[in-house]
Amino acid sequence: MASSNNVTFPNKLLPYLLLAPQLAITLIFFYWPASQAIYQSVLREDPFGLSTQFVGLGNFRRVISDPNYLNSLQVTIVFSVATTLIAMTIALLLAVMADKVIRGKNIYRTLLIWPYAVAPAIAGMLWLFLFNPSMGTLAYLARSAGYNWDPLLNGNQAMVLVVSAAAWKQISYNFLFFVAGLQSIPKSLIEAAAIDGAGENKRFWTIVFPLLAPTTFFLLVVNTVYAFFDTFGIIHAVTGGGPGKATETLVYKVYNDGFVNLILGDSAAQSVILMIIVIALTAIQFRYVERKVHYG
Amino acid sequence: MIQNNPIGRLIAHFVLILGIVVVAFPIYYTFVASTQTLQEIIRPPLSLLPGGHFWENYSSALFGGVGRIGGVGVDRLLWNTVVMALGIAIGKIIISLLSAYAIVFFRFPGRMFFFWLIFITLMLPVEVRILPTYKVMVDLGLIDTYTGLTLPLMASATATLLFRQFFMTIPGELVEAARVDGAGPWRFFKDILLPLSKTNIAALFVILFIYGWTQYLWPLLMTNRNDMSTIVVGLRKMISFADADTEWHLVMVTCILAILPPILVVVLMQRWFVRGLVETEK
């Protein structure tokens, strides 16, 4: 990424003044708390803040060997994989269909993208209105059909509910990117395959799908980040991590341990582990961007 | 031509309509519920057509809402959310424009260091540093203030990167010409750079407005008083399934009011929205 722009202004002080607001906010609200999290993660403090003690990696060892933490890790993985797969599969199906139609393309797009504007917490509430056992119409229909539906008591059903809400909200985003990806595939390739006698299914799996790989991979990373970090609102508004700890994701646990249960050292250690996960995911994402630049 | 397959196209239309029904149904259902009486809502199944209480419910939620969520009306919550969304969007755009301008059009010691300092904030979302950030906000006395709701979210690596990327495509000759004509850095910024950036600013504004409007964890942490809450957080506080006197019809109205403004922004500014989404994720 070489800068093509070598013409600049000669001022000495001005650039620092221009950067000052951004840097001030960044240092006070990003770097300072992040360094505090790292600092606290090696300390053990009693709940009243009366005494602190350096414990090295003790907090990390405790967190990693804590069955509740391992449970929460497992919940997060199940939740992320399910959300990502469902949101991407439905979006890809709709994008392939939208690529085929000629009339009404824009109307379909408009009607499919609006859930993007719905806050995750509200997405959760919308699904809760439909599926809560006391007044949800769909819950009522499920019960009338003889199905024992109660996401407030059954952990698996609670998971189905939060995954549905999270995936529902993400379909529109994936749809837009898949549509863009499909448009960038040269039509001549597909026509050539058709002339060679490849059927629709075969054309999709041997030409379209492999050529969509960059889009798919990009969305895989973005959806994983979304499921890990942006779905706190859904969990908080719909299940509160319950029933039991069936839907307690890692981010929800950091919040709960630090804010509700006041176990500061453990919460800080969990924060640091999450930071490492974000750094890894961002690194993957940017490596991919570089590759995309290379191959045009 | 392979596109000329009427049956395939018919199936495509069918699948798309099915998709739209699935995508729109939760919102439609809530809208229907918001036009019914409380008694109708708590006795499922709900009818699939809107009821006759639209004006009644909406006006009592908006204007008669005394003592709704600890004494705060929906109008106040909506106002707080508007302030937060606009504050974050405008603040982020200004701050990112300035820092991208500094990084691209000036050469000064520490330029790349500062660039990386901004870039790395991508990896420090609030979700991974909840507790210490809260402590900083308490120490600075920013809990329950508009400053606390907006200022810390104004630093943005994404917006800075976007503007930097765009500024680097501006030909050096343009800068040279401006300098020959005697334009200083401020003139250049105001008369050349800003007009050229209009499209990018509009696209970014849509994305950031939605970002600000849909925030949840941040206002949850930063507000204790109900009258400083945003509508999304306020809505969460209204919902209680255990509580027999939750006014569900008004909850549904609030829900629709909470999702309508950002949906309108997406639908009406669709061109900018799509562009902004693609640009910010590069």
From TrEMBL, chain A:
Main location class: membrane
PROSITE patterns, per database record: ABC_TM1 (PS50928)
GO cellular component terms given for this protein: plasma membrane
SUPFAM superfamilies xrefs: MetI-like
Localization of this protein: Cell inner membrane; Cell membrane
Alphabetized Gene3D superfamilies for the sequence: MetI-like
CDD domains hit by this protein: TM_PBP2 (cd06261)
Cross-referenced InterPro entries: MetI-like (IPR000515), MetI-like_sf (IPR035906), UgpAE/MalFG_permease (IPR050809)
Record's keyword annotation contains Transmembrane helix: yes
PANTHER family linked: BLL4140 PROTEIN, SN-GLYCEROL-3-PHOSPHATE TRANSPORT SYSTEM PERMEASE PROTEIN UGPA
Name of protein: sn-glycerol-3-phosphate transport system permease protein UgpA
Lineage of origin: Bacteria, Pseudomonadati, Pseudomonadota, Alphaproteobacteria, Hyphomicrobiales
UniProtKB/TrEMBL annotation, chain B:
Residues that span the membrane, as ranges: 7-29, 82-106, 113-131, 143-163, 200-218, 248-269
Bilayer topology annotation: Multi-pass membrane protein
Gene Ontology CC: one annotated term: plasma membrane
Subcellular location: Cell inner membrane; Cell membrane
Main localization (coarse): membrane
InterPro entries the record matches: MetI-like, MetI-like_sf
A biological process term (GO) from this entry: transmembrane transport
Origin superkingdom: Bacteria
Cross-referenced Pfam families: BPD_transp_1 (PF00528)
Entries under PROSITE patterns matching the protein: ABC_TM1 (PS50928)
Keywords, in A-Z order: Cell inner membrane, Cell membrane, Membrane, Transmembrane, Transmembrane helix, Transport
ABC transmembrane type-1 domain residues: 78-269
SUPFAM superfamilies the UniProt entry points to: MetI-like (SSF161098)
UniProt keyword annotation of Cell membrane present: yes
Keyword Cell inner membrane included in the entry's annotation: yes
NCBIfam families: PRK10973.1
Family indicated by similarity: Belongs to the binding-protein-dependent transport system permease family.
Quaternary organization: The complex is composed of two ATP-binding proteins (UgpC), two transmembrane proteins (UgpA and UgpE) and a solute-binding protein (UgpB).
Function description: Part of the ABC transporter complex UgpBAEC involved in sn-glycerol-3-phosphate (G3P) import. Probably responsible for the translocation of the substrate across the membrane.
PANTHER family: ABC TRANSPORTER PERMEASE PROTEIN MG189-RELATED-RELATED, SN-GLYCEROL-3-PHOSPHATE TRANSPORT SYSTEM PERMEASE PROTEIN UGPE
Name this protein carries in UniProt: sn-glycerol-3-phosphate transport system permease protein UgpE
Originating organism: Phyllobacterium pellucidum
